[in-house]
Design goal:
The chain has 498 residues and is of the alpha/beta class. It has 3 domains: 241 residues, Rossmann fold; 127 residues, Helicase, Ruva Protein, domain 3, CATH 1.10.8; 118 residues. The strands form 6 sheets. It has a 5-stranded parallel beta sheet, with helices on one face. A 3-stranded antiparallel beta sheet has the order 14-16-15, sandwiched between helices. The N and C termini lie far apart (87 Å).
Length: 498
Protein backbone atom coordinates (compact mmCIF):
# COMPACT_ATOMS: atom_id res chain seq x y z
CA UNK A 1 0.00 0.00 0.00
CA UNK A 2 1.16 3.53 -0.79
CA UNK A 3 2.00 5.39 2.45
CA UNK A 4 1.28 8.88 1.12
CA UNK A 5 -0.68 11.05 3.56
CA UNK A 6 -1.11 14.21 1.49
CA UNK A 7 -1.80 15.00 -2.14
CA UNK A 8 1.75 16.28 -2.52
CA UNK A 9 3.23 12.98 -1.32
CA UNK A 10 0.82 11.11 -3.58
CA UNK A 11 2.00 13.06 -6.63
CA UNK A 12 5.66 12.42 -5.76
CA UNK A 13 4.98 8.68 -5.47
CA UNK A 14 3.96 8.61 -9.14
CA UNK A 15 0.37 7.56 -8.46
CA UNK A 16 -1.93 7.79 -11.48
CA UNK A 17 -5.71 7.96 -11.31
CA UNK A 18 -7.65 5.12 -12.91
CA UNK A 19 -11.39 4.66 -13.44
CA UNK A 20 -13.01 1.69 -11.71
CA UNK A 21 -13.88 -0.06 -14.99
CA UNK A 22 -10.24 0.22 -16.13
CA UNK A 23 -9.18 -1.02 -12.71
CA UNK A 24 -11.37 -4.12 -13.03
CA UNK A 25 -10.22 -4.69 -16.61
CA UNK A 26 -6.50 -4.40 -15.86
CA UNK A 27 -6.65 -6.69 -12.84
CA UNK A 28 -8.71 -9.25 -14.76
CA UNK A 29 -6.13 -9.29 -17.54
CA UNK A 30 -3.38 -9.98 -14.99
CA UNK A 31 -5.34 -12.86 -13.45
CA UNK A 32 -6.16 -14.38 -16.85
CA UNK A 33 -2.50 -14.24 -17.84
CA UNK A 34 -1.55 -15.97 -14.58
CA UNK A 35 -4.37 -18.50 -15.19
CA UNK A 36 -5.84 -17.71 -11.77
CA UNK A 37 -9.40 -18.67 -10.85
CA UNK A 38 -11.14 -15.29 -10.74
CA UNK A 39 -14.47 -16.43 -9.30
CA UNK A 40 -13.72 -18.98 -6.61
CA UNK A 41 -16.57 -21.10 -5.30
CA UNK A 42 -18.77 -20.46 -8.34
CA UNK A 43 -19.50 -23.98 -9.58
CA UNK A 44 -21.05 -24.95 -12.91
CA UNK A 45 -20.58 -21.60 -14.67
CA UNK A 46 -17.04 -22.21 -15.94
CA UNK A 47 -18.05 -22.58 -19.59
CA UNK A 48 -21.17 -20.40 -19.63
CA UNK A 49 -21.59 -17.46 -17.25
CA UNK A 50 -17.94 -16.82 -16.29
CA UNK A 51 -16.64 -16.29 -19.87
CA UNK A 52 -19.51 -13.88 -20.59
CA UNK A 53 -18.81 -12.02 -17.36
CA UNK A 54 -15.11 -11.70 -18.18
CA UNK A 55 -15.94 -10.40 -21.65
CA UNK A 56 -18.24 -7.79 -20.11
CA UNK A 57 -15.50 -6.62 -17.72
CA UNK A 58 -12.96 -6.43 -20.53
CA UNK A 59 -15.51 -4.34 -22.45
CA UNK A 60 -15.94 -2.09 -19.40
CA UNK A 61 -19.68 -2.68 -19.38
CA UNK A 62 -22.29 -2.26 -16.70
CA UNK A 63 -23.80 -5.70 -16.16
CA UNK A 64 -27.24 -7.21 -15.61
CA UNK A 65 -27.28 -10.76 -14.22
CA UNK A 66 -30.61 -12.28 -15.25
CA UNK A 67 -31.77 -15.56 -13.78
CA UNK A 68 -34.10 -17.38 -11.40
CA UNK A 69 -33.59 -17.32 -7.66
CA UNK A 70 -30.71 -19.21 -6.13
CA UNK A 71 -28.37 -18.98 -9.15
CA UNK A 72 -25.44 -17.24 -7.39
CA UNK A 73 -26.10 -13.83 -8.94
CA UNK A 74 -25.33 -11.83 -5.79
CA UNK A 75 -22.34 -14.01 -4.96
CA UNK A 76 -20.84 -13.28 -8.36
CA UNK A 77 -21.36 -9.55 -7.86
CA UNK A 78 -19.70 -9.62 -4.45
CA UNK A 79 -16.66 -11.41 -5.82
CA UNK A 80 -15.98 -8.57 -8.26
CA UNK A 81 -14.26 -6.71 -5.42
CA UNK A 82 -11.34 -9.14 -5.81
CA UNK A 83 -10.62 -7.47 -9.16
CA UNK A 84 -10.21 -4.05 -7.56
CA UNK A 85 -6.88 -2.56 -6.45
CA UNK A 86 -6.30 -3.37 -2.78
CA UNK A 87 -6.31 0.32 -1.74
CA UNK A 88 -7.19 3.61 -3.42
CA UNK A 89 -6.59 7.16 -2.10
CA UNK A 90 -9.52 9.48 -1.30
CA UNK A 91 -9.70 13.05 -0.07
CA UNK A 92 -10.01 12.71 3.69
CA UNK A 93 -13.54 13.44 4.91
CA UNK A 94 -15.11 13.23 1.47
CA UNK A 95 -18.62 11.78 1.26
CA UNK A 96 -18.14 10.80 -2.37
CA UNK A 97 -14.77 9.00 -2.12
CA UNK A 98 -13.18 11.80 -4.17
CA UNK A 99 -10.05 10.95 -6.13
CA UNK A 100 -7.40 13.43 -4.81
CA UNK A 101 -6.18 14.00 -8.38
CA UNK A 102 -9.64 14.23 -9.92
CA UNK A 103 -12.17 15.50 -7.31
CA UNK A 104 -15.88 15.70 -8.17
CA UNK A 105 -17.60 17.08 -5.05
CA UNK A 106 -17.72 20.72 -3.96
CA UNK A 107 -16.27 19.69 -0.59
CA UNK A 108 -13.14 18.12 -2.10
CA UNK A 109 -12.65 20.87 -4.66
CA UNK A 110 -12.89 23.61 -2.03
CA UNK A 111 -10.55 21.78 0.32
CA UNK A 112 -7.92 21.26 -2.38
CA UNK A 113 -8.28 24.88 -3.47
CA UNK A 114 -7.61 25.92 0.13
CA UNK A 115 -4.79 23.51 1.12
CA UNK A 116 -3.32 22.47 -2.21
CA UNK A 117 -0.73 19.69 -1.96
CA UNK A 118 -1.10 19.69 1.84
CA UNK A 119 -4.62 18.31 1.56
CA UNK A 120 -4.87 15.16 3.68
CA UNK A 121 -5.79 11.86 2.04
CA UNK A 122 -6.85 8.48 3.40
CA UNK A 123 -6.89 5.02 1.86
CA UNK A 124 -9.95 2.94 1.07
CA UNK A 125 -9.71 -0.86 1.04
CA UNK A 126 -11.37 -2.77 -1.80
CA UNK A 127 -13.73 -4.56 0.65
CA UNK A 128 -15.20 -1.14 1.49
CA UNK A 129 -15.89 -0.43 -2.17
CA UNK A 130 -18.92 -2.69 -2.52
CA UNK A 131 -22.40 -1.24 -2.04
CA UNK A 132 -25.60 -3.27 -2.36
CA UNK A 133 -29.21 -2.12 -2.47
CA UNK A 134 -32.31 -4.28 -2.63
CA UNK A 135 -34.83 -2.72 -5.00
CA UNK A 136 -38.25 -2.43 -3.44
CA UNK A 137 -41.30 -0.44 -4.60
CA UNK A 138 -40.80 2.08 -1.77
CA UNK A 139 -37.28 3.10 -2.83
CA UNK A 140 -37.33 6.83 -3.56
CA UNK A 141 -35.28 9.22 -5.67
CA UNK A 142 -33.86 10.68 -2.48
CA UNK A 143 -32.66 7.23 -1.36
CA UNK A 144 -30.75 6.61 -4.58
CA UNK A 145 -29.72 10.04 -5.87
CA UNK A 146 -30.19 12.51 -3.01
CA UNK A 147 -32.25 15.53 -1.99
CA UNK A 148 -32.05 18.91 -0.30
CA UNK A 149 -31.65 18.54 3.46
CA UNK A 150 -33.51 21.36 5.25
CA UNK A 151 -32.06 20.39 8.62
CA UNK A 152 -28.52 20.73 7.26
CA UNK A 153 -29.44 24.08 5.73
CA UNK A 154 -30.83 25.32 9.05
CA UNK A 155 -27.92 24.06 11.18
CA UNK A 156 -25.26 25.48 8.86
CA UNK A 157 -27.34 28.58 8.06
CA UNK A 158 -27.03 27.95 4.36
CA UNK A 159 -29.16 29.19 1.49
CA UNK A 160 -31.09 26.57 -0.45
CA UNK A 161 -29.08 27.74 -3.44
CA UNK A 162 -25.89 26.48 -1.74
CA UNK A 163 -24.73 23.06 -2.97
CA UNK A 164 -23.75 22.11 0.58
CA UNK A 165 -27.43 21.67 1.55
CA UNK A 166 -27.59 18.52 -0.58
CA UNK A 167 -27.82 15.18 1.19
CA UNK A 168 -26.35 12.67 -1.26
CA UNK A 169 -28.10 9.37 -1.86
CA UNK A 170 -26.54 5.92 -1.96
CA UNK A 171 -25.42 6.12 -5.60
CA UNK A 172 -23.24 9.26 -5.30
CA UNK A 173 -21.81 7.85 -2.07
CA UNK A 174 -20.82 4.78 -4.10
CA UNK A 175 -18.49 6.80 -6.32
CA UNK A 176 -15.45 4.68 -7.32
CA UNK A 177 -17.25 1.57 -5.99
CA UNK A 178 -19.13 -1.44 -7.29
CA UNK A 179 -22.82 -0.67 -6.85
CA UNK A 180 -25.32 -3.54 -6.99
CA UNK A 181 -29.09 -3.22 -7.29
CA UNK A 182 -30.76 -6.55 -6.57
CA UNK A 183 -34.19 -7.40 -8.07
CA UNK A 184 -34.12 -4.46 -10.48
CA UNK A 185 -37.68 -5.04 -11.87
CA UNK A 186 -39.10 -4.25 -8.41
CA UNK A 187 -37.82 -0.67 -8.73
CA UNK A 188 -40.59 1.69 -9.80
CA UNK A 189 -40.40 2.74 -13.45
CA UNK A 190 -39.98 6.45 -12.59
CA UNK A 191 -37.00 5.55 -10.39
CA UNK A 192 -35.48 3.41 -13.13
CA UNK A 193 -35.72 6.45 -15.42
CA UNK A 194 -33.52 8.36 -12.97
CA UNK A 195 -30.73 5.90 -13.74
CA UNK A 196 -30.61 6.80 -17.44
CA UNK A 197 -28.17 9.70 -17.12
CA UNK A 198 -26.01 7.93 -14.57
CA UNK A 199 -25.50 4.94 -16.84
CA UNK A 200 -25.09 6.82 -20.10
CA UNK A 201 -23.36 10.06 -19.09
CA UNK A 202 -22.09 9.15 -15.62
CA UNK A 203 -23.59 12.25 -13.98
CA UNK A 204 -26.41 13.10 -11.56
CA UNK A 205 -28.87 15.97 -11.07
CA UNK A 206 -30.46 16.82 -7.73
CA UNK A 207 -33.50 19.08 -7.26
CA UNK A 208 -32.67 21.27 -10.23
CA UNK A 209 -29.19 22.27 -8.96
CA UNK A 210 -26.92 23.32 -11.79
CA UNK A 211 -24.28 20.78 -10.96
CA UNK A 212 -22.76 17.94 -12.89
CA UNK A 213 -21.06 15.35 -10.71
CA UNK A 214 -19.29 12.85 -12.93
CA UNK A 215 -19.51 9.57 -11.04
CA UNK A 216 -17.20 6.62 -11.55
CA UNK A 217 -19.24 3.52 -10.71
CA UNK A 218 -19.34 -0.09 -11.84
CA UNK A 219 -23.04 -0.96 -11.89
CA UNK A 220 -24.21 -4.56 -11.50
CA UNK A 221 -27.92 -5.35 -11.58
CA UNK A 222 -29.60 -8.63 -10.74
CA UNK A 223 -33.09 -9.60 -11.85
CA UNK A 224 -35.42 -12.52 -12.24
CA UNK A 225 -36.80 -13.02 -15.75
CA UNK A 226 -39.48 -10.47 -16.49
CA UNK A 227 -42.16 -13.07 -17.02
CA UNK A 228 -41.75 -14.20 -13.40
CA UNK A 229 -42.41 -11.01 -11.44
CA UNK A 230 -45.85 -9.42 -11.48
CA UNK A 231 -44.59 -6.35 -9.68
CA UNK A 232 -42.81 -4.74 -12.58
CA UNK A 233 -40.19 -5.07 -15.28
CA UNK A 234 -37.02 -3.39 -16.46
CA UNK A 235 -37.98 -0.44 -18.64
CA UNK A 236 -36.67 -0.83 -22.18
CA UNK A 237 -34.51 2.34 -22.30
CA UNK A 238 -32.74 1.22 -19.11
CA UNK A 239 -32.01 -2.21 -20.57
CA UNK A 240 -30.63 -0.45 -23.61
CA UNK A 241 -28.13 1.40 -21.42
CA UNK A 242 -26.81 -1.73 -19.67
CA UNK A 243 -23.83 -2.99 -21.63
CA UNK A 244 -24.10 -6.74 -21.04
CA UNK A 245 -27.01 -8.90 -19.92
CA UNK A 246 -25.80 -12.30 -18.74
CA UNK A 247 -28.12 -15.27 -18.23
CA UNK A 248 -27.42 -17.48 -15.23
CA UNK A 249 -28.75 -21.03 -14.81
CA UNK A 250 -29.13 -23.92 -12.39
CA UNK A 251 -26.54 -26.72 -12.21
CA UNK A 252 -26.81 -28.87 -15.29
CA UNK A 253 -25.94 -32.15 -13.57
CA UNK A 254 -26.46 -33.92 -10.26
CA UNK A 255 -22.67 -34.02 -9.81
CA UNK A 256 -22.32 -30.22 -9.99
CA UNK A 257 -25.33 -29.76 -7.74
CA UNK A 258 -23.75 -32.02 -5.11
CA UNK A 259 -20.55 -30.00 -5.25
CA UNK A 260 -22.46 -26.79 -4.58
CA UNK A 261 -24.38 -28.32 -1.68
CA UNK A 262 -21.25 -29.79 -0.11
CA UNK A 263 -19.54 -26.41 -0.37
CA UNK A 264 -22.40 -24.33 1.01
CA UNK A 265 -24.03 -26.55 3.67
CA UNK A 266 -23.24 -25.39 7.20
CA UNK A 267 -22.29 -28.59 9.01
CA UNK A 268 -20.61 -28.49 12.42
CA UNK A 269 -17.35 -30.29 13.09
CA UNK A 270 -19.06 -32.77 15.44
CA UNK A 271 -21.66 -33.55 12.76
CA UNK A 272 -18.94 -34.19 10.18
CA UNK A 273 -17.14 -36.44 12.64
CA UNK A 274 -20.11 -38.49 13.86
CA UNK A 275 -22.53 -38.59 10.93
CA UNK A 276 -21.67 -40.14 7.59
CA UNK A 277 -23.76 -39.16 4.57
CA UNK A 278 -23.28 -41.57 1.71
CA UNK A 279 -23.31 -40.69 -1.96
CA UNK A 280 -26.73 -42.31 -2.41
CA UNK A 281 -28.43 -40.02 0.12
CA UNK A 282 -26.63 -36.94 -1.22
CA UNK A 283 -27.74 -37.81 -4.74
CA UNK A 284 -31.39 -38.25 -3.74
CA UNK A 285 -31.39 -34.80 -2.11
CA UNK A 286 -30.18 -33.23 -5.36
CA UNK A 287 -32.74 -35.20 -7.35
CA UNK A 288 -35.52 -33.63 -5.28
CA UNK A 289 -34.59 -30.22 -6.73
CA UNK A 290 -34.28 -31.61 -10.27
CA UNK A 291 -37.70 -33.25 -9.94
CA UNK A 292 -39.21 -30.03 -8.57
CA UNK A 293 -37.96 -27.99 -11.54
CA UNK A 294 -40.02 -30.11 -13.93
CA UNK A 295 -42.96 -30.92 -11.67
CA UNK A 296 -46.42 -29.91 -12.85
CA UNK A 297 -47.38 -28.64 -9.39
CA UNK A 298 -44.36 -26.32 -9.07
CA UNK A 299 -44.27 -22.90 -10.75
CA UNK A 300 -41.39 -23.20 -13.22
CA UNK A 301 -41.23 -19.42 -13.67
CA UNK A 302 -40.40 -19.02 -10.00
CA UNK A 303 -37.58 -21.54 -10.10
CA UNK A 304 -36.25 -23.89 -7.44
CA UNK A 305 -33.33 -22.36 -5.62
CA UNK A 306 -30.08 -24.17 -4.85
CA UNK A 307 -30.87 -23.18 -1.28
CA UNK A 308 -33.45 -25.99 -1.25
CA UNK A 309 -30.85 -28.73 -1.45
CA UNK A 310 -28.48 -26.90 0.91
CA UNK A 311 -31.17 -26.61 3.59
CA UNK A 312 -32.35 -30.17 2.90
CA UNK A 313 -28.82 -31.52 3.39
CA UNK A 314 -28.46 -29.61 6.67
CA UNK A 315 -31.83 -30.96 7.86
CA UNK A 316 -30.90 -34.49 6.85
CA UNK A 317 -27.72 -34.36 8.93
CA UNK A 318 -29.64 -32.93 11.87
CA UNK A 319 -32.28 -35.66 11.56
CA UNK A 320 -29.59 -38.34 11.71
CA UNK A 321 -27.89 -36.52 14.58
CA UNK A 322 -31.09 -36.32 16.63
CA UNK A 323 -31.74 -40.02 16.05
CA UNK A 324 -28.19 -40.83 17.09
CA UNK A 325 -28.51 -38.83 20.31
CA UNK A 326 -31.87 -40.35 21.26
CA UNK A 327 -30.90 -43.93 20.41
CA UNK A 328 -27.61 -43.73 22.31
CA UNK A 329 -25.30 -44.48 19.35
CA UNK A 330 -21.90 -42.77 19.23
CA UNK A 331 -21.84 -42.47 15.44
CA UNK A 332 -24.29 -43.17 12.67
CA UNK A 333 -24.90 -43.20 8.94
CA UNK A 334 -27.73 -41.23 7.34
CA UNK A 335 -30.54 -43.54 6.25
CA UNK A 336 -33.32 -43.32 3.68
CA UNK A 337 -35.86 -43.03 6.49
CA UNK A 338 -33.99 -39.90 7.68
CA UNK A 339 -35.08 -38.18 4.46
CA UNK A 340 -38.42 -37.49 6.16
CA UNK A 341 -36.52 -34.67 7.85
CA UNK A 342 -35.93 -32.80 4.58
CA UNK A 343 -39.65 -32.16 3.96
CA UNK A 344 -39.70 -28.85 5.94
CA UNK A 345 -36.78 -27.63 3.81
CA UNK A 346 -38.72 -28.30 0.62
CA UNK A 347 -42.05 -26.84 1.85
CA UNK A 348 -40.93 -23.23 1.96
CA UNK A 349 -38.72 -23.22 -1.11
CA UNK A 350 -41.11 -24.21 -3.86
CA UNK A 351 -43.79 -21.93 -5.27
CA UNK A 352 -46.84 -23.92 -6.26
CA UNK A 353 -49.30 -23.40 -9.07
CA UNK A 354 -53.02 -23.51 -8.27
CA UNK A 355 -53.25 -27.31 -8.53
CA UNK A 356 -50.23 -27.65 -6.25
CA UNK A 357 -51.84 -25.37 -3.66
CA UNK A 358 -54.85 -27.68 -3.68
CA UNK A 359 -52.60 -30.65 -2.97
CA UNK A 360 -50.70 -28.85 -0.22
CA UNK A 361 -47.00 -28.09 0.10
CA UNK A 362 -46.26 -31.07 2.36
CA UNK A 363 -47.93 -33.57 0.00
CA UNK A 364 -46.10 -32.11 -3.01
CA UNK A 365 -42.79 -32.28 -1.10
CA UNK A 366 -43.38 -35.93 -0.19
CA UNK A 367 -44.26 -36.72 -3.81
CA UNK A 368 -41.05 -35.04 -5.00
CA UNK A 369 -39.05 -37.18 -2.57
CA UNK A 370 -40.86 -40.28 -3.84
CA UNK A 371 -40.12 -39.41 -7.47
CA UNK A 372 -36.48 -38.77 -6.65
CA UNK A 373 -36.20 -42.23 -5.08
CA UNK A 374 -38.14 -43.86 -7.92
CA UNK A 375 -35.99 -42.34 -10.69
CA UNK A 376 -32.69 -42.83 -8.89
CA UNK A 377 -33.56 -46.51 -8.46
CA UNK A 378 -33.66 -46.90 -12.24
CA UNK A 379 -30.04 -45.71 -12.48
CA UNK A 380 -28.86 -48.99 -10.93
CA UNK A 381 -31.67 -51.54 -10.99
CA UNK A 382 -33.92 -52.95 -13.76
CA UNK A 383 -37.18 -51.14 -14.38
CA UNK A 384 -39.94 -53.34 -12.87
CA UNK A 385 -42.48 -52.07 -15.42
CA UNK A 386 -40.29 -53.03 -18.37
CA UNK A 387 -39.65 -56.48 -16.90
CA UNK A 388 -43.38 -56.99 -16.53
CA UNK A 389 -44.11 -55.92 -20.11
CA UNK A 390 -41.41 -58.18 -21.53
CA UNK A 391 -42.52 -61.01 -19.22
CA UNK A 392 -38.95 -61.46 -18.01
CA UNK A 393 -38.04 -63.09 -14.73
CA UNK A 394 -37.98 -60.47 -12.01
CA UNK A 395 -34.89 -60.16 -9.76
CA UNK A 396 -37.24 -58.84 -7.09
CA UNK A 397 -39.34 -62.02 -6.90
CA UNK A 398 -37.83 -63.49 -3.71
CA UNK A 399 -38.28 -60.18 -1.87
CA UNK A 400 -41.88 -59.82 -3.00
CA UNK A 401 -42.61 -63.45 -2.10
CA UNK A 402 -41.36 -62.88 1.45
CA UNK A 403 -43.71 -59.94 1.90
CA UNK A 404 -46.61 -61.85 0.30
CA UNK A 405 -46.26 -64.43 3.10
CA UNK A 406 -47.43 -61.76 5.54
CA UNK A 407 -44.02 -60.55 6.72
CA UNK A 408 -43.53 -56.86 7.51
CA UNK A 409 -40.59 -54.56 8.23
CA UNK A 410 -40.74 -51.44 10.36
CA UNK A 411 -38.06 -48.80 9.76
CA UNK A 412 -38.27 -46.86 13.01
CA UNK A 413 -37.29 -43.19 12.91
CA UNK A 414 -35.27 -43.63 16.14
CA UNK A 415 -33.96 -47.18 15.59
CA UNK A 416 -30.45 -48.02 16.86
CA UNK A 417 -27.88 -48.86 14.20
CA UNK A 418 -27.69 -52.45 15.43
CA UNK A 419 -31.45 -53.12 15.22
CA UNK A 420 -31.73 -51.19 11.95
CA UNK A 421 -29.10 -53.38 10.27
CA UNK A 422 -30.61 -56.57 11.74
CA UNK A 423 -34.09 -55.73 10.46
CA UNK A 424 -32.96 -54.86 6.92
CA UNK A 425 -30.75 -57.92 6.54
CA UNK A 426 -33.53 -60.24 7.65
CA UNK A 427 -35.28 -59.85 4.29
CA UNK A 428 -34.26 -62.74 2.00
CA UNK A 429 -32.97 -61.85 -1.44
CA UNK A 430 -32.33 -58.20 -0.63
CA UNK A 431 -28.61 -58.61 0.07
CA UNK A 432 -28.10 -60.67 -3.11
CA UNK A 433 -30.02 -58.14 -5.23
CA UNK A 434 -27.80 -55.24 -4.09
CA UNK A 435 -24.65 -57.32 -4.48
CA UNK A 436 -25.62 -58.19 -8.05
CA UNK A 437 -26.51 -54.72 -9.35
CA UNK A 438 -24.43 -52.44 -7.09
CA UNK A 439 -21.43 -54.62 -6.16
CA UNK A 440 -18.50 -53.84 -3.90
CA UNK A 441 -20.39 -51.53 -1.55
CA UNK A 442 -18.89 -51.33 1.90
CA UNK A 443 -20.87 -51.56 5.10
CA UNK A 444 -22.91 -49.62 6.12
CA UNK A 445 -23.46 -48.18 2.60
CA UNK A 446 -24.74 -51.56 1.53
CA UNK A 447 -27.36 -51.58 4.28
CA UNK A 448 -28.57 -48.12 3.25
CA UNK A 449 -28.78 -49.32 -0.37
CA UNK A 450 -30.90 -52.27 0.79
CA UNK A 451 -33.21 -49.89 2.64
CA UNK A 452 -33.32 -47.74 -0.51
CA UNK A 453 -34.52 -50.76 -2.51
CA UNK A 454 -37.47 -51.18 -0.14
CA UNK A 455 -38.52 -47.54 -0.56
CA UNK A 456 -38.07 -47.78 -4.34
CA UNK A 457 -40.11 -50.98 -4.65
CA UNK A 458 -42.89 -49.22 -2.74
CA UNK A 459 -42.68 -46.25 -5.13
CA UNK A 460 -42.99 -48.70 -8.04
CA UNK A 461 -46.08 -50.22 -6.34
CA UNK A 462 -44.50 -53.64 -5.84
CA UNK A 463 -44.81 -53.62 -2.05
CA UNK A 464 -46.94 -51.59 0.33
CA UNK A 465 -45.68 -48.74 2.46
CA UNK A 466 -47.44 -47.09 5.38
CA UNK A 467 -46.03 -43.93 6.95
CA UNK A 468 -46.77 -44.11 10.67
CA UNK A 469 -46.00 -41.65 13.47
CA UNK A 470 -42.79 -43.38 14.54
CA UNK A 471 -41.85 -45.53 11.57
CA UNK A 472 -42.29 -46.44 7.96
CA UNK A 473 -43.78 -49.91 7.60
CA UNK A 474 -43.31 -52.14 4.53
CA UNK A 475 -45.66 -55.03 3.81
CA UNK A 476 -47.32 -56.94 1.00
CA UNK A 477 -49.07 -54.55 -1.39
CA UNK A 478 -52.43 -56.39 -1.35
CA UNK A 479 -52.28 -56.83 2.41
CA UNK A 480 -51.59 -53.13 2.76
CA UNK A 481 -54.60 -52.26 0.60
CA UNK A 482 -56.92 -54.58 2.55
CA UNK A 483 -55.70 -53.23 5.91
CA UNK A 484 -56.43 -49.68 4.76
CA UNK A 485 -59.97 -50.72 3.75
CA UNK A 486 -60.46 -52.39 7.14
CA UNK A 487 -59.32 -49.24 8.91
CA UNK A 488 -61.73 -47.14 6.87
CA UNK A 489 -64.58 -49.57 7.50
CA UNK A 490 -63.82 -49.68 11.21
CA UNK A 491 -63.75 -45.91 11.33
CA UNK A 492 -67.19 -45.74 9.75
CA UNK A 493 -68.71 -48.34 12.07
CA UNK A 494 -67.27 -46.74 15.15
CA UNK A 495 -68.20 -43.24 14.12
CA UNK A 496 -70.29 -41.34 16.67
CA UNK A 497 -72.49 -40.24 13.77
CA UNK A 498 -73.58 -43.83 13.03
Amino acid sequence: MNNSKTIGELKKSGYKSKGIKDELRDNLILKIKKKENVFKGIIGFEDTVIPELERAILSRHNINLLGLRGQAKTRIARQLTQLLDEYIPIVEGSELNDDPLNPVSAYAKNKIAELGDKTAISWLHRDERYVEKLATPDVSMADLIGDVDPIKAANLRLSYADERVIHYGIIPRSNRCIFVINELPDLQARIQVALFNILQEGDIQIRGFKLRILLDIQFVFTANPEDYTNRGSIVTPLKDRIGSQILTHYPKSIHLSKEITAQEAKITESQRKNIQVGDLIATIIERIAFEARKNEFVDSKSGVSARLTISAYENLVSTAERRMLLSGDDKTVARIVDLIGVIPSVNGKIELVYEGEQEGAAIVAQNLLGRAIRNQFLEWFPDPNKLKKKKQESPYQSILAWFSEGNTVDCLFLETDKNYTKGIKAIPGLDELVEKFVPKLKEPEKTVMMEFVLFALAEHSLIGKNSLERSVQFKDLLGSMFSEKDLLAGGEEGSPNN
